[in-house]
């Protein structure tokens, strides 16, 4: 224990008034709290819990990716509300026995379903520090906010955004896309829309995205009050990229019908196949038409960290806003979504509000305005920035970029394995790290659905499914930094084995 920590209790116990008198604050420590009565025993149990999680991650390859939950285990978590204190060690033992073995499995290198990052031990430790600090990052003058502002600065640098740009940590890109849409709505209608609502503005807004965009764009239209019918779904080309000519035609048709186009959401890494829209072309279209240019980069924006891949995102630096997830390719533990807005002043106009209980001052804890709660809907906010800050500080942007490049190389390796196997077929181009394929069979949709379920239950691999041009596909999203060619080979071998078995049924 450092000298600074040894003297801290005396500093806490005595506070000084302006006239020099001291107030003894030590008596409160004797009152009942939720702190441990025996710190030594608690500390020993805490170390056991930490070691158990280190062991879990270190030996993750020895576990199945996923396994079904037995009825008796599921039933164990149907108990009544505990009224009396329990034992920490016993509760931890229940977690190890009944929770940990039946998680979704995205820490495992064989997890390739959906787009889930694998997390890191560094991020886990940072999350523990954040929980211990228990900071509310809605506002106030505190160093945790400077950590968040540091990450915002790094993202400005990464995406070549100006100093006036503002960033905000949120739960994930679903919320980030919603915030971007609301800021764009303010830019189109002015701050008066916050008081009068859409009905008072006298305009019928229209937004645009591709048919391959994530469903959260439509959800944002719904939540914002604009309605999903105000979202035009633009067709994609053979590479699953938005058809910019069709986009221009849709905008022109809507203007001709007396509607007000205001927002384009391009995608950097579509959820189905990982395609990247031609961001430069979409940016040029947005400029010509005077529309807000947003990029949903939940899956692919962090490819900017990889020199080999960053040129594929040319044009993202022209965006008015970007949504991304550090908990995907950034490998930050869940959750750590982020929105970056080019004009922070418009974002402030969208969410800033005054209230007596949120009074700002030039000194004391109420200094440091504006606060994060002025740039989004959340007043209570966790310290998501700390695990992101730790991840970049400890691993470095170059190492994260190299990991992203490697996951794309593994996707190409999987593509090669599929091409070399007559019983398999590729269903979509491999743009980044997502591969969509299937086992050739007479009843292909049923067979491939059964293959994926069998893969899950075997614990060998966990891909997901999607539909590509009417055909059910096995979708392998290679995001986990622990994945290697061994996991790709295991996926192929098991797919062929289960495919052969299911084809005979």
Molecular structure report:
By secondary structure, the protein is an alpha/beta fold. The chain has three domains: 40-105; 129-395, Type I PLP-dependent aspartate aminotransferase-like (Major domain) (Aspartate Aminotransferase, domain 2, 3-Layer(aba) Sandwich); 398-503, Aspartate Aminotransferase, domain 1 (Alpha-Beta Complex). Helices cover 42% and strands 14% of the residues. The strands form three sheets. A seven-stranded mixed sheet has the order 4-10-9-8-7-5-6, sandwiched between helices. The protein has a five-stranded mixed sheet with strand order 3-13-14-12-11. Helix 6 (143-159) crosses helix 13 (384-395) and helix 14 runs parallel beside helix 16.
Q: How much helix, percentage-wise, in residues?
A: 40-55%
Give the overall form. Answer: globular
The overall pLDDT, averaged over residues, is 94
Biggest pleated sheet: 7 strands, mixed
Q: How do the strands of the widest beta sheet line up side by side?
A: 4-10-9-8-7-5-6
What is the CATH topology classification name of the largest domain?
Aspartate Aminotransferase, domain 2
Total number of beta strands: 14
Structural class: alpha/beta
Distance between the termini: 66 Å
Ranges with pLDDT <50 over ≥5 residues? Answer: 1-5, 7-11
Discrete helix count: 16
Strand content: 5-15%
Instruction: Give the full name of the CATH homologous superfamily of the largest domain.
Output: Type I PLP-dependent aspartate aminotransferase-like (Major domain)
Give me the CATH architecture of the largest domain, please. Answer: 3-Layer(aba) Sandwich
CATH class of the largest domain: Alpha Beta
Oligomer: single chain
Q: Which series of helices and strands comes N to C?
A: HEEHHHEHHEHHEHEHEHEEEHHHEEHEEH
- How many structural domains? 3
- Tell me the Rg in angstroms: 26 Å
